[in-house]
């Protein structure tokens, strides 16, 4: 069965879906559920997958599916509950199933009669206490080492009664609770102090450490003093990483996300008693729409009443309808009403309103209602955006969460090598092989001066900076001719690779349109090479292949387009930075330094008296000789060289001026040609 036939069957199923709320399931060829979604109107939502130009994540879903099932519900709220249950049951690949993606360790205090403290990356829901995560692993290890030196805690993996204590007891580093040499009350007292340290409540404990450090230094026990100093520093680092002051004392969560294609990273900041005590990152793969991502995440994240704070701040304005007028309060929005008449109104409106017109406010209200009905918790879901008045601390917290989510996405792209983007690029550009090595070129100059070509290299979808190069262009110095500049840079690069017998790239990306692409293609063919070429035009982000009349246009969320944009932006950054360095160097170095027999001191003297090379050429040899204290014969030779240098500079200026005129004329001609073509179309009635 062809892909076209499968698509037609899927489309037919969508068109036959009812005009009611419900949940739909996409299955692959093996019968596995790969996506679960909800809709206010099933027919509208399912039909939308097959209408218009879809983004890459929707194309990916349709390409992997062979059947659609749906379950009708009485209203959208019931659909939300059913969707949540089905996601937890099937764990679909393209839904948020809340796989904990944090890469940082945490401190665990076990839930035992005689607890143990250690660092771990695994969280067990067994009543243990967790603190963190902590990005600085070295600081965390130093802190734990200090804790074990200050408190005689057990080190054994499993606690069991023993007849004789272990070596740690004889070293004075454990009180041997396994041999009943310490009571439970005395042992638990240690952990009260440790928890106070972790929560930043016990300043006296830090002062005790400082006092002990000074005493060790006075006793010339510098090793112990250094150990205690490192422990204090580690404790300060941990506090700086995990405790943020200036929040109000209300318990709250701040939820933000960052998305790249199907990849979504969520960050949750947990504020308890006015302090930021935890930051959790969750890595997900989801094909859901942006306005439903946060709701889907919250359904998966909150699974017990004690986990849900009274205030939940979210980063997306997509949950709020654009026509809603927000109240003037600065800190919070009113609770979503749970009245049954509103629910019935929403249900009645569902049959008359298309899925595309769903109000995001309904989504927020449904989540609020779900929290109330399932866990008996009345929490406020509060939006924090630039368009809604909010206290600065809330915006700062959301920005922090968003930044953490963005950084996690960057790490994920780096870890996976951006293979999906390369695979999509291979398919959309019809390449013979995966573009593992991509090389990009760009030209930078200021009015034709200091022309530089940058070459950057991406390997496996990520920058490979050791293979970055730049070319100081020779044939177009003082001229504005991007085509000639690109031809020179490409010729020099690949002639050298040919001579060295080096590997060629899998794709060559040009920052420009069809003109630059064709110019480079001519060079590549003249060298007898077969390197695929593409150009990315900045204006509309169109992709041009050699000798084509129409560009390739990819969706804005396309992984392939994102990869090309990264390569293009990096070539531009690298070329511009090099051009700036050349300009700075030329502006700093005096033109008088190029004269024979002139060093820094004489150049400074000539600069102060004559200012420019033109003024110097108007002087007599005797005056110059007197100024810098040289023989008149040497001054005459210097003046003759200055005449030649000035003539060369004037010739370059003339060429540059002519080049600017030509560049302007070319643009004017292109604009005039476009205007005439438009008039011709109008005349023909096109």
Main features:
single chain, 686 residues, flat
Description:
With 686 residues, this protein is α+β, with helices and mostly antiparallel strands. Helix content is 48%, strand content 16%. The protein is built from 21 helices and 19 strands. Strands 13, 14, 15, 16, 17, 18 and 19 form a seven-stranded mixed sheet that branches. The chain has a six-stranded mixed sheet with strand order 4-10-9-8-11-12. Strands 2-1-3 form a three-stranded antiparallel sheet. Helix 14 crosses helix 17 (559-588) and helix 15 packs parallel to helix 16. The model is unreliable at 241-247, 317-362 and 665-686 (pLDDT under 50).
In short:
The chain has 686 residues and is of the alpha+beta class. It has 21 helices and 19 strands.
Beta-strand content estimate: 15-25%
Quaternary structure state of the chains depicted? single chain
Q: Low-confidence runs (pLDDT<50, min 5 residues)?
A: 241-247, 317-362, 665-686
C-alpha-based Rg, rounded: 35 Å
Considering DSSP H and I runs of 4 or more, what fraction of the residues is helical? 40-55%
Q: What best-fitting shape do the alpha-carbon axes yield?
A: flat
Give me the count of strands. Answer: 19
Number of helices: 21
Class by alpha and beta content: alpha+beta
Distance between the termini: 41 Å
In round numbers, the mean pLDDT is 76
Largest sheet: 7 strands, mixed
């Amino acid at each position: 069965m062809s892909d076209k036939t499968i698509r037609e069957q899927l489309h037919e199923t969508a068109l036959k879906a009812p005009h009611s709320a419900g949940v739909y399931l996409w299955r692959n060829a093996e019968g596995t559920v790969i996506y679960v979604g909800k809709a206010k109107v099933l027919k509208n939502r399912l039909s939308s997958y097959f209408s218009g130009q879809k983004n890459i994540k929707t194309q990916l879903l349709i390409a992997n599916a062979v059947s659609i099932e749906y379950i009708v519900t009485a209203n959208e709220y019931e659909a939300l509950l059913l969707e949540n249950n089905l996601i937890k049951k099937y764990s679909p690949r393209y839904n948020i199933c809340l796989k904990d993606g944090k890469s940082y360790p945490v401190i665990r205090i076990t839930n035992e009669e005689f607890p143990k403290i250690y660092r771990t990356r695994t969280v067990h829901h067994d009543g243990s206490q967790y603190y963190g995560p902590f990005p600085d692993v070295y600081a965390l290890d130093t802190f734990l080492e200090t804790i074990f030196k200050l408190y005689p805690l057990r080190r054994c993996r499993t606690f069991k009664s023993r007849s004789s204590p272990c070596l740690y007891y004889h070293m004075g580093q454990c009180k041997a609770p396994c041999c009943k040499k310490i009571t439970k009350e005395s042992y638990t007292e240690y952990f009260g102090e440790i928890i106070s340290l972790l929560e930043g409540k016990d300043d006296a404990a830090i002062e005790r450490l400082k006092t002990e450090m000074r005493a060790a230094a006075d006793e010339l026990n510098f090793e112990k003093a250094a150990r205690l100093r490192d422990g204090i520093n580690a404790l300060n680092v941990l506090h700086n990483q995990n405790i943020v002051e200036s929040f109000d004392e209300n318990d709250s969560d701040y939820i933000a996300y960052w998305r790249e294609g199907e990849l979504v990273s969520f960050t949750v900041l947990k504020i308890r008693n006015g302090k930021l005590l935890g930051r959790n990152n969750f890595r997900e793969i989801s094909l859901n729409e942006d306005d439903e991502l946060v709701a889907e995440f919250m359904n998966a994240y909150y699974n017990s009443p004690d986990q849900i704070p009274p205030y939940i701040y979210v980063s997306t304005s997509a949950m709020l309808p654009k026509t809603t007028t927000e109240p003037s309060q600065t800190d919070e929005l009113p609770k979503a009403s749970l009245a049954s008449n509103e629910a019935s109104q929403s249900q009645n409106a569902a049959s008359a309103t298309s899925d595309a017109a769903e109000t995001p406010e309904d989504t927020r209200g449904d989540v609020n209602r779900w929290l109330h009905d399932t866990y008996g918790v009345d929490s406020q879901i509060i939006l924090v955006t630039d368009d809604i008045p909010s206290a600065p601390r809330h915006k700062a917290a959301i920005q922090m969460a968003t930044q953490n989510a963005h950084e996690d996405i960057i790490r994920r792209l780096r870890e996976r090598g951006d293979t999906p983007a390369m695979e999509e690029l291979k398919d959309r550009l019809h390449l013979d092989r995966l573009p593992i090595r991509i090389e990009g070129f760009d030209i930078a100059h200021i009015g034709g001066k200091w022309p530089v070509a940058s070459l950057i290299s991406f390997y496996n979808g990520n920058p490979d900076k050791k293979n970055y190069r730049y070319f100081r262009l020779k044939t177009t110095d003082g001229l504005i001719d991007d085509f000639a500049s690109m031809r020179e840079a490409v010729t020099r690069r690949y002639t050298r690779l040919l001579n060295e017998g080096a590997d060629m790239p899998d794709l060559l990306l040009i920052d420009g349109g069809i003109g630059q692409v064709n110019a480079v293609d001519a060079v590549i063919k003249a060298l007898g090479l077969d390197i695929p070429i593409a150009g990315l035009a900045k204006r509309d982000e169109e992709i041009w292949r050699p000798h084509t009349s129409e560009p390739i246009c990819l969706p804005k969320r396309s992984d392939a387009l994102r990869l090309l944009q990264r390569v293009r932006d990096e070539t531009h950054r690298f070329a511009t930075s090099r051009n700036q360095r050349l300009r700075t160097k030329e502006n700093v170095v005096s033109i008088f330094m190029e004269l024979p027999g002139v060093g820094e001191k004489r150049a400074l003297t000539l600069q102060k008296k004559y200012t420019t090379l033109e003024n110097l050429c108007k002087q007599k040899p005797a005056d110059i000789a007197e100024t810098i204290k040289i023989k008149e014969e040497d001054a005459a030779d210097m003046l003759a060289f200055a005449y030649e240098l000035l003539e060369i500079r004037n010739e370059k200026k003339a060429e540059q001026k002519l080049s600017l005129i030509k560049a302007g004329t070319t643009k004017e001609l292109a604009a005039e040609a476009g205007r005439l073509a438009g008039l011709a179309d109008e005349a023909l009635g096109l």
